[in-house]
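On clarity, I found the account of how folds are encoded harder to follow than it need be. What matters is that the chain and its backbone geometry are given together, residue for residue. I therefore recommend that a typical entry be quoted early in the introduction. An entry of this sort, consisting of the sequence and the corresponding backbone structure tokens, reads as follows:
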Amino acid sequence: MNGAAGESSADGIIHPRPATPLAPTPKKKGSDLSARLLTAAVLVPAAIYVIVAGGLPYLGFITLFILLGMREFYRLIEEKGALPLVSWGLAAGAALPVVAYIGNEYHVTLILTATLLGVMIRQLGKAQIGEALVSISGTFFGVFYVGWLLSHAIVLRNFYGAAASRYGEAKIVVLGIDPESGIFLISFCMAAVVLSDTGAYFAGRAWGRRKLAPRISPGKTIEGAVGGVIGGTLGGLASKSLFDVFWPQLSSFLAWDAAIVMGVMVAILAIVGDLLESLLKRDAQTKDAGSILPGMGGVMDRIDSALLGIPGMYYMLLFYVFLNVG
């Protein structure tokens, strides 16, 4: 194998480091694209199904992605030599979407508080205390960054109930929000996120000249980011157009001017989310967070943009309802 196997610290533990990249092996042209398209052909119909179905299938789908994403995140921390409390973090991460589904934001706060306290107490019993601060911080950040942020996909899909609990069901009905409007809202958000990534990729390849964040992700350009904002906005608006034609009871409550603003903001948040994950991977000296998705890398590489886009959409919608219910 090329490269050093690891680095030895003062405690005698060998901490693994990424191996020196091997020389590239010849592969058939378009093989990555074929694998990516095949993976998308499986994931996209599954995602559409669970979004429309809602309920337990949707909850299970989101919980699975949270657990896979958190495990990849903890591997990034382990590559840095830290020892996160993986089982504690995964347990808390799995609890968050369940609590978001059956409880409310107060219960989610209780879970986060209990997680932090539990991790700190558990750290007291570990033999190694030299990395206590990193272990506690890394474990909790994984719960927050992946578990808490992605749990917003649950409340966004169940937006009718979330809004009704805040402002009263009578006001929500008058505003025209349907109990199943979450189907439209999560579709709008994901269309904006996916088209933001796509627009940034193609605009960057075609016109990219000026670096957006060279120290974090040298391949990303300002021109690509502009293409991402345009693509994400058009993706969200295309989703609203389709729902307005085929399923208007789910989307008519959202005015077009608000849809434009939300499309722009979700696209920007998607770009920031992508940069944030690039920062974490750069620090861990790895290209992909995982390899579970052929042609796409890891789960973290697929949900990085959505981790900020989905919560941003949810809180913008709450503000929109606040402005309209008086």
Notes: The chain has two domains: 37-157, 168-326.
